[in-house]
Please model this.
Amino acid sequence: MFDAATVGGALTSLKTIVDLVKTANGAQLAAKVSSEVIEAQGKLFDIQREALALQTENQQLRVEIEKFRSTRFHHSVNWRVLADGSEDGPFCPVCAGEGIEMRLTLRGVVDQTGPFWHLQCPKTHKVGVGAEGIMGRGRELSYPIPKELVPENRYFLRS
Model:
């Protein structure tokens, strides 16, 4: 015979078991959702880091483009373009290729009385004849620049 109290107790126990199973499934589901949220946050962090790296690279490229736009190359040397459109220089093209803006200076032991200034880079460049240049001194380029292109008193030679 079935005792109503026993059946009621069994139903209550069954309900408690079902609630425990639901709670256990809910906990497993919550743990899984939590794990997926953490993974999604990690991926979002990686994306933000990549976006920041791209923004930094973009800014560097913009600076390089602006630097490129603000220079001109003629008479075998580089010239900086000023805001008013005039030019400042001349600068060494070899150094410019290395990312350095090096102003050319007067070359010694050269007749400077003609229509050209004979200029050179004050930095020694190790290219050209052999691995060490000419007798180990490096490449000694001379840039003949028309005197009218170089600003007055640049080299303190004109009155």
